[in-house]
Amino acid sequence: MFLSFLIILLIAFSGMCLTYLFAEKESFLWRLCAGNIVGSAVFGLICFVISNFFGLSVLTIIISLAISSASILLLRNDKIKKRLKFEWQRGKDRNQGASFKRFWRLTYYIFFLVVFIAFFDRAMIVTADGIFTGASQNLGDLPYHLGGIFGFADGNNFPPQNPSFAGAKFTYPFIADFLTACLVKLGSSVDSAMLIQNVSWAFSLLVILEGFALKITGSKLAGKIAPVILFFSGGLGFLWFLGDYWYGTQGLFEILWNLPRDYTIGDNFRWGNSLVTLFITQRSLLLGMPLTIIVMGYLWKLAALGHLIDADSGLKDKDPDANEGFPYSALIIGLVAGTLPFIHAHSLAVLFLISAWLLFMSIWSWRKWLVFAIGVSVIAIPELIWILSGSATNMSQFIGWHWGWDARGQNLFWFWIKNTGIFIPLLVAAALYLSAIRTNNDSAEKALSTSSENENSIEQQKPFRLSTSVFVLLEYLTPFLIIFALANFVKFAPWEWDNIKILIYWFVGVIPLAALLLAWMWQRDKYFRVASICLLICLTSSGALDVWRTASAQMKNRVFDKDAVEIAKKLKDSTEPGALFLNAPTYNSAVVLTGRRSLMRYIGHLSSHGIYYEEREKDLQRIYAGEATAEIFLKKYDIEYVLISPKEREYATKNSFKLNEQFFEKFPVEAESGEYKVFKIKK
Description:
By secondary structure, this protein is mostly helical. The protein has helices spanning 2-19, 28-54, 58-68, 78-94, 100-120, 141-153, 175-185, 190-217, 220-231, 237-247, 252-256, 274-279, 283-307, 328-337, 340-343, 345-361, 366-388, 412-420, 423-435, 442-448, 470-489, 500-523, 526-551, 562-574, 603-608, 614-624, 630-636, 646-654; strands spanning 125-127, 130-133, 400-401, 490-491, 557-561, 580-582, 597-598, 641-644, 669-673, 676-680. The strands form 3 sheets. Strands 7-6-8-10-9 form a 5-stranded mixed sheet. A 3-stranded antiparallel sheet has the order 1-2-5. The chain has a two-stranded antiparallel ribbon with strand order 3-4. The radius of gyration is 26 Å and the shape is globular.
């Protein structure tokens, strides 16, 4: 784990140097966290390209680190070097001495760090009895990510084929798993590599969202509240918890240590908690979201230059780039955004919508927008062409009319209230409050900021000032409201629940407004302060219960038994990295742990990715049934090994056909462990 930490630190520092090219005034902590995200994107893309030519090895990783770390040479620039020293010294000075303010700030970050470590430590649990997960929603996602990680690290899967559907291109955004594979290739265990990456990305998201909310609202307190709302998001599930407690026989502390279910996801709820349903299961979003927020922050600053920040100087109708040279910052941030197709494609779609809206609202900044678009296109278009060519994904399944997201026939108003609690009413109240504020209202200016000093800036800056007018408020809210509306009318994935990959950005985008209202209430008097605390508790109680259920180790679900782990080790030693296996299409086949390809795996994953699997599944069943055409299909698909285990027997029973184990006895046994047996088909 120590080596993984050093690698991540190097990546973060090199990315930190790049932030000086597009973010002039930031804190040292923000730069380090943003650098971790930007550096991961840059290193991941460089190493992936090189690995496609030379394979993934220690040498290719070292070369990629050297190339991506070239950004450290930017420190030769005196201006950048001085700003780095200044930021570092300022950060040290602010944390020296004893005061309640310093203690609160440190406690805030330590709290989240402890939560992240305890929570993500439950993603993958390796014991002598097998591999487990302690997260309720991670049972199918963990093996899917392990298939990608081991495919890169042990299967030499370059150019990458879909490990779950052999012969098709791997179009799932895979950079997060590829980065884990790099650490595994350097000797880290996969569970420790995932843990340190997940914690570092989650902490980076915390700091980046805090900075974004601060700049949007001008309130340091709102900046602190916003991540709390995101990471402990939930709805009215805490009322169901109170019902379980009231009608149960357990005491309060006893039930808290033995929570019977999740209170943000399940039969009654679909929104889920961001940590439980998204960040631990969809690792690509954990890397893609902070990157997207970094880009969004730049874009709103770009739009604000046209008619907010410069409004006081009478420059509203002038081109802010008129007296500037080439806008390198727009090019750099565009190149960074261009990495998103390989990281999290839905995030790129969100950025496209937001960019189109902001361009329309700030056309006077067209030069920077054009340069930004060029930067995005240079990286994103080749990635998209690569993804779409030779893909087994049927793109027509990704767009279609679908009313009410995942409401399942419920009243849509009640559905959203039940799933998000008081968040939407609070958001409406915040919008009404902001609509009443005008630029020259001195009391409003005080409500917008808890201090004249910008915590995340080296120098005092003007916020984007959502409150300057109703027009500006609508300008900010519109793209997020469009996202919310579209996701409730149109499905953007074969499985409608996957719309949450877009819906989550509606939530993230409007969180600063809700946080600002809570901050304003906290600053009023003791009665408003109590109300602010109560509202925050209502917003976060359900999510906190689900996060606590995972972090306190109340669950331990088996994913792979010890025989599956053992036979996977044997197969890694005895089979070629690119070997093709036939196994039951279950989420937790032992083949996942080998890094080898499967003819097909879990149907749930294939259908959610828009892959037609039906014909291949019928052929798979014919082979396992030992029909007269079985050997023909073995040759058709060029199957090299066949796995027979309890999973195959369960699958045959579930699908009403007899598994003909005698048919495979004529083939030599390649490996065996307990009830697991692998036959070698090709000599």
